[in-house]
UniProtKB/TrEMBL annotation:
Residues 1-151 form the 6-phosphogluconate dehydrogenase NADP-binding domain. This is 2-hydroxy-3-oxopropionate reductase. It comes from Acrocarpospora pleiomorpha. Residues 154-275 form the 3-hydroxyisobutyrate dehydrogenase-like NAD-binding domain. GO terms for molecular function: NAD binding; NADP binding; oxidoreductase activity, acting on the CH-OH group of donors, NAD or NADP as acceptor. The active site is at residue 160.
C-alpha cells in the first residue's frame, strides 16, 4: 500500500515494528524516509495507520501514561486515517480525543487481502466527515479501486467487522459442507463445483476453496487470529447495541476456539483442515 502511494508521487515518512521492512522499503523508494521517532512526523499532512487492533492504534498515537505518542508530534489540522481493523466505538472515542488536539480523523479499513493490496484493487470502507473524505480521496485512490462512504466516524470499522463476520460464517459453513460431502463420498472438488453452480456459491467457494484450501497452500495472506478478532469485534458491537446475534455468537465461539489452538501464523483458510482435525465443531 505504501508502495502505491510512493508510485503516486507522494513523499512518505514510514515506520514499522519490523525495522528490516522499513529499510527495504526506503532502499527501494527514494521519496521515502524512515522515521527515527514520533518527531519525524511533525511536518506530515496525513498519517496513515495499518495496525493489528485498537489497542496498538491508541498506543502508537497516544503513547503511554506519560504520552510520547505520534499524535504529540503531528501538526494542527493533520488528518489521521486509520486503515486498521479497529473497534468502532473505540475509534469514535479516539476521534474525539484527537479532535481536542486539533487533529482530524477518518477510519478507512480495507477489504481485498494481500493480493488486493499489491494490485491496488482494495475496497476502502470509510467513516467520517464528507469534507475529510474529499481531502483523503486522492490518497485512498492510490491504494484502493473502490471507496465506499459508510457513515460517521467508526462506521468503516463497523462495516469491516460485519463484512468479516459474514466471510467467517461462510467459511465455516462451506468447510462443514465439504467435510459432510466427503464423508458421504462426494469429493471436495466435486462439492465445490456443485456450490459454484448452485445457490450455495459464495466468495469462499469461488475464491478460496480451490485456490487456498483443497490445494493445501493456505497462503491467502490473512491470519486466522485476525479473522477471529474481527468476528469478536462484530459480536461485541452487537452486544453494545443490544442487538441479537445468535448465529454470530456461534461463529465467534468456533473461530475463537480454533484460533486458541492453531499456530500464531496460521492462515484463515486453514480452517479447512483445522475444523476437521478438531472433530466436533459445536
Amino acid at each position: 500500500m505504501a508502495a502505491h502511494l510512493a508510485d503516486g508521487g507522494y513523499r512518505l515518512t514510514v515506520m514499522d515494528a519490523a525495522s528490516g521492512a522499513v529499510d527495504a522499503f526506503v532502499a527501494g523508494h527514494p521519496a521515502a524516509e524512515a522515521a527515527a521517532g514520533p518527531e519525524a512526523f511533525a511536518g506530515v499532512q496525513a498519517l496513515i495507520l495499518m495496525l493489528p487492533n485498537s489497542a496498538i492504534v491508541e498506543e502508537v498515537l497516544e503513547g503511554d501514561i506519560e504520552g510520547d505518542g505520534v499524535a504529540d508530534a503531528l501538526p494542527p489540522g493533520c488528518l489521521v486515517i486509520d486503515m486498521s481493523s479497529s473497534e468502532p466505538l473505540r475509534t469514535r472515542a479516539l476521534a474525539a480525543r484527537l479532535h481536542a488536539r486539533g487533529l482530524s480523523m477518518l477510519d478507512a479499513p480495507v477489504s481485498g487481502g494481500v493480493r488486493g493490496a499489491k494490485a491496488g484493487t482494495l475496497s476502502a470502507l470509510v467513516g467520517g466527515p464528507q469534507d475529510e473524505l474529499a481531502r483523503a480521496t486522492p490518497l485512498l485512490r492510490a491504494m484502493a479501486r473502490t471507496i465506499v462512504p459508510v457513515g460517521d466516524i467508526g462506521s468503516g470499522h463497523a462495516a469491516k467487522a460485519l463484512n468479516n463476520l459474514v466471510s467467517a460464517a461462510t467459511i465455516s459453513i462451506t468447510v462443514e459442507a465439504l467435510a459432510l460431502g466427503e464423508s458421504f463420498g462426494i469429493s471436495p472438488e466435486t462439492m465445490t463445483h456443485v456450490l459454484n453452480s448452485s445457490s450455495g456459491r459464495s466468495n469462499t467457494s469461488e475464491n478460496k476453496v480451490s485456490q487456498f484450501m483443497t490445494n493445501g497452500s493456505f497462503d491467502s495472506g490473512f491470519s486466522l487470529r485476525l479473522m477471529s478478532k474481527d468476528v469478536d469485534i462484530a459480536v461485541d458491537l452487537a452486544r453494545a447495541l443490544s442487538r441479537p446475534a445468535e448465529i454470530a455468537d456461534g461463529v465467534a465461539r468456533q473461530w475463537r476456539r480454533i484460533a486458541g489452538t492453531a499456530p500464531p501464523q496460521a492462515d484463515h483458510t486453514e480452517m479447512y483442515t483445522l475444523l476437521t482435525e478438531a472433530g466436533s465443531t459445536r
